[in-house]
Structure formats: C-alpha cells, structure tokens
Amino acid sequence: MFSSLIPSMIAFGIAALVIVTAGSRLARLADELADRTGLGEALFGVLLLAGVTSLPDFAATLSAAMDARPDLAMSNVMGSMAVNLAFLGIADMVYRKANLEHAAASPVNLMLAGLLIVLLTLPLLAIATPSIAQWGVHPVTPVIVAAYLFGLHLVHRTRAWPMWFPRLTRQTVPDKPEQQHHGSSAAAWLGFVVLAVVTCIAGWIVMEAAKGIADQTGLSDTLIGGLFTALATSSPELVTTVAAIRYGALTLAVSNIFGTNCFNMLVVAAADAGYPLNSIYHDMAPVQMTWGLVSILMTAILLLGMVRRETYGIGRIGFESALILVVYAVALGVIVASG
Q1: Positive or negative CA dihedral for 284, 82, 35, 182?
Q2: At 9, which CATH number?
Q3: Other beta carbons within 10 Å of 209
Q4: Which of 54, 59, 17, 18 is nearest to 208 (CA)?
Q5: Residues of the domain holding 231
Q6: 301 touches 323 (CB < 8 A)
Q7: How far is the CA of 164 from the CAs of 31, 158, 161, 254, 265, in angstroms?
Q8: What is the largest distance, in Å, between two alpha-carbon atoms of the chain?
Q9: How confident is the model over 177-206, as pLDDT tens digits?
Q10: SS3 of 67, please?
Q11: Closest Cα to residue 245, out of 27, 8, 18, 15?
C-alpha cells in the first residue's frame, strides 16, 4: 500500500495518533455503558472494551498473516500482549493512592490472569509439536477458541456467583455504578461503535505502513512487529487504562488489560486461519516464543501481586509493577539484539 519510506512513516504516525485519541474517548464511554448495562466494569471490560481495543491488533495481525509475513504478524500480536502487561506497571505509577492491584481487587481479574496463562501456553505447545495442519489450520487453533469461550463462561460465573471476596480496606475502590449520566444510551452505544470502527481502520493502516517501513529500511519483521507496530496498536490499551484510572474505574482499567490479552489469543487463532501457506506456528522464527514466554512470566508475577495485595511499595509502586517493567525491558533488549 505504501511504496516509499516517508509516506509510510507519515501514515504510521497519523494512524497511531488516531488510535490514541479514540482510545481516550473509549474509556469514558466504556465506564458509562458498564453502569447503564449493569454488567459492571470487570465484565464490560472483558466482553466489550477488550475486544474494541484489540481491533487494531486484529486488523494489523490478520493483514500481515494474509500477506504471508508470519514473523510480522506474530511478533505484533505477541509483542502487544507483553507491552499491554507492561502498561499495568505504568498505570500503577499513575495511580498514586495505593498499589493499583490492591485498590482494584476483584475475583474476576484473578480469573482472567489464570485464563491468560492457560491461553498463552497453547500456541507455544503448537510451536513445540510436529508440523500438523488440517486445511491449513493447526489443531491447537480451534482449541484456543474453545478455551477462550469456556474462559468467558467461567469469568461470568465468577462475577455472578463469587466463591470468595477480597478483603476491603481503605484503599480498595469497589465497582459502584453511577446513577446519573448525561445523554442517552443510544448515543453512548453509537459513539462506542464509531470509535471501534475508527480504531480498526487505523490498526490496518498502521500495519500497511509498517510493511513499507520494514521493506524500505531493511529492518526485520520481528523487530518492526515486536517494537513499533506492537506499541502503536496497543496504544488504546494504555490510553483507556490511564483514562479509566482518572475516571476512578480501577476495576475496568485492570480487566481491560487482561481481557484484551485474552481476546488477542483469538487474534492468534485468526492469524493461523488467515495464513495462506501451512500452519503459521511453524513458519515463524523461534524468537517469537520469547514474547509468549515473557507474557506468561509477567502475567504470573501480576497474579502473585493481586493475591498478595501489597498496599504500598517503594515509591508507592507495587513490587509486581516494578518487576514486570524490568522483565519487559530485558525482553525488549533481547529482541532488539537478536535483530
């Protein structure tokens, strides 16, 4: 789509800016619709906001997969999941009253973290197994979809009939719906849908521009996907998470990150289905496993932090937030060094 470097860079920058701008608006609408629908911040973040903020990743990854560029596709989606988790560390810095994972204590978020670890192991198992594909799709791909849907069922049951409750402290911010909202529900839904379409189109443009940048600069698809497009297509998660914190919707902020990463596993499945050659898991470079393993490690660290619920850490930043930022920085250094 973009045959020269300068137009590619301009298109990349404009599309990334559109994604950021739309993301800030999405957070406010999501908080409002969570109250209007009665779903609550956690469930709305999982079912709807996570899917919408993942649309740029979906469009970008599928575009690269259908263009037979497996490293660009998988490094984008896997790198996005790692950077999304790092965003929780940044969000913890933004929220100064207490450790974010302490204040946003929720059984739904614990369930989401466990579900994400399960989902992340599936493509890694596909990579480690012999190359098997039926109609060009690896058997693990439908398992990913089934596991995601069953996981949503568990999340719903966890919210509807929780078997345990977090201990309430002065720093805990419960999910309480506001009674007064300006405008109608129809207008809120219309705005939400329009912003979803805008972010999806912008995500597709980001990937098309990224292909041009990779071709013109000679940088590897792994580096372009894992660093540049992953950051650009993940910017809605950062913007909506920080915006949700400022609106006081802490549960929405955390569930959005975990829910987005769970939804991104459907993006992995779509990439395998859309890949025109064999199974995408066996055509990508082994370095792509790094992002998956790092995401599992970061999720496990955050899960430990949510269970421990440290009130304050050094500089009012939880130990888990500091640790996942270090892990992400080291992983990014490894990816850059590997080219």
Answers
A1: negative
A2: 1.20.1420.30
A3: 26
A4: 59
A5: 5-173+181-338
A6: yes
A7: 25, 9, 9, 19, 28
A8: 57
A9: 555 556 677 887 888 788 878 877 877 787
A10: coil
A11: 27
